[in-house]
Amino acid sequence: MLWLISILFFLPVLWIVLSSFKTKQDILAWPPKFIFQPTLQGFVDLFKRPIFITAFTNSIVISLTSIVIAIIISYFASYAFSRLQPKLTGFMMFILLSIRMVPGAATMIPVFMMYTALGWKSTHYGMILFYTMFSIPFSVWIIKGFLDSVSTKFDETALVNGAGRLNTMFKVILPQVKAGIVAAFIFNIIFVWNEFLFGFILGGNKVQTMPVALATETYTSAGVDWNYVATMSVINLVPLLILLFFFQKHLLVGMTFGTVRDEI
Amino acid sequence: MRPDLLTHTVQNNMPIRKAGKLQDFFADNNRFILVLLLPVVLFFLVLNALPTMWMVGMSFRDYSLISATKTAEFIGLDNFVYLLSSNSVWNSLSKTFTFVFFGVLIETVIGVLLGFLFWHSTEMTGRRLALTLLFSPMILAPIAAANYFKLMLSPNFGVINYIISLFNNGKPIEILSSVDYAFWACLFVDIWMWTPFMLLMTLAALGSVPKAELEAADVDRLTWPQKFKHIILPHGKFIMMLGILLRTIDSFKTMDLVWGMTTGGPGNSTELLGIGLYRVAFSSLNLGRASAYALITLLIAVAFTSIFLFILNRKNIEEGLSK
User: Were both Cys, which of A19, A24, B152, B193 would link to B137 (CB 3.0–4.6 Å)?
Assistant: First the structure.
């Protein structure tokens, strides 16, 4: 019964996966073909297109770099917010959160104007900077949630024993919030990896990520290339699916800003 | 023991690291805070505060990328007046609220029902795989989902339309090109993508109910509605509220999915706020007006955030009182 529900939700995804192994004729067959001769031709064709390698490397470079930078910066900030509690902590946390609550298109207008003026459009660093900012708010919220649950006694003991501030921060406290770091990573990678709108507006040909390439390279002289759409979607999905399988628990933590941490 | 003696013992027993220059530098509390927060503040100022202020300034000006004069003349509230008196903004607002309302409502109802089914299913074989499949709609790129649903809903090649045609005397129907159905088709895909999220939140909420209380309820032979009202609801309430709120905010932001499926059409029948904004900015290239539009959206989002934090804080206060 439960399997049935899972599979029901999985069906459309399964249909995409099946299509990626079909020939062009089979994808567009009417009535739709449920049983067909599988072929890898779609993937072979995809790998031959220059856009594939470009988009794939861009996706990996841009999302990994920006998330790693974002998490380091967020750890600094959330450590300060959680341990030293400077003035305006509450206010800054509010501002950070509201950044992410604003609809993409509203953020995009000013960023677009600025990127055009500064010449940051269609550059790798421009994209990385943007996605870093995009990932910081949730990372800070998630990591701070974890830091708050680690007793300050650890800090005190370490400091009294002469560990120094940096050692306390990285060697004593950091290992204890590893789960939070992983949660922030998983959560943000799903968003950045799948993000389309900003990549589409701010990026150009050279910095296309996979979701952007998925939308822009679909049309060929012979109409929509559905083989391309199916295979590209599948390649885009597989890494996340693997992450989801192994880090299910962390996804939940991320989705609830670290407020829920139990096993489901 | 004398204080200086205590220090003496501690120092003798612990390995002492020679304080480096960096260590001295960070000894000052304020300096340490400053260094830790500097990167975030820099990022925020450059990529957020600055552009936003620019946008606010722009929203009072007449600035269009295609106008002959690029002087960006100050025109006061004209942009806002224009937007609020035009039909398109109100159309987008009502479309968005309909989308959010029905989307969140249906996702919550189905999610909660399915959540109860999955409760206590920890023994199920291959649960991890089943959950991975169940959550797969959430991690599929919205643009990929949009593209593919376009094919699946197509009256010529689409599998969904094929199934419809079986019940419709073999005749498929126009969906995405129809003013009547396009909106609901987008909503349907949104529900498919995000019901698993509500299910996830329901599972988390149910997980927070203490087992002992449930067992006690069984001993006392409480009926289902009683059990629900007195045990499950008080414990799971907060997480469910969090889930609904997060979904509301996210649904309000929906863009990639609908953009990929219909780009707001046919006509403006699926023109949600984000898409309306996009059209003003990049089709008519009137950045002054678009800035004003963005500012309005921003204010609505900030209001949502405030409500969100209000609920979160209330939960913290309640917990603080009970401890």
Answer: B193
Residue among B241, B200, B235 nearest B217 (CA): B235
The secondary structure of residue B61, as a DSSP letter, is E
Q: What is the pTM of this model?
A: 0.83
Which residue bears the tokens 């509220």? B241
- Chain B residues with CB inside 8 Å of A163's CB? 17
The verdict on a CB contact (< 8 Å) between B33 and A86 is yes
Question: Measured between CB atoms, which of A13, A96, A196 is closest to B140?
Answer: A13
Q: Using only C-alpha atoms, what is the Rg of chain A?
A: 22
Q: How far apart are CA B106 and CA B321, in angstroms?
A: 35
| ipTM at complex level | 0.84
Tell me the CA end-to-end span of chain A in Å, nearest whole number. Answer: 18
Interchain contact, A32 vs B204, CB within 8 Å: no
Chain A with chain B: Cβ pairs closer than 8 A: 298
Residue B156: exposed, middle, or buried by beta-carbon count in 10 A (0-12, 13-18, 19+)?
Answer: exposed
Q: Give the separation between CA B14 and CA A69, rounded to whole angstroms.
A: 35
Alpha helices, DSSP H, located in chain B: 3-13, 21-26, 29-44, 50-58, 78-85, 87-118, 127-139, 142-153, 159-167, 182-207, 211-219, 224-227, 233-252, 256-262, 273-282, 287-322
Q: Chain B: residue nearest A80 by CA? A: B33
Q: Which residues contact A21 (CB under 8 A, 6 or more apart)?
A: A36, A38, A39, A40, A42
| Residue pLDDT, tens place only, B160-218 | 888 888 887 777 788 788 888 889 999 999 999 999 989 888 888 887 777 888 888 88
Q: CB distance from A233 to chain B under 8 Å?
A: yes
Digits of tens for pLDDT over chain A (264 positions)?
Answer: 778 888 888 988 998 888 888 887 777 777 777 777 788 888 888 888 888 888 999 999 999 999 999 999 999 999 999 888 888 888 888 888 878 777 777 788 888 888 888 888 888 888 999 999 989 988 998 888 888 888 888 888 888 887 778 888 888 888 888 888 998 898 899 889 998 888 888 887 788 889 888 888 777 776 778 888 888 899 999 999 998 888 887 877 777 666 666 555
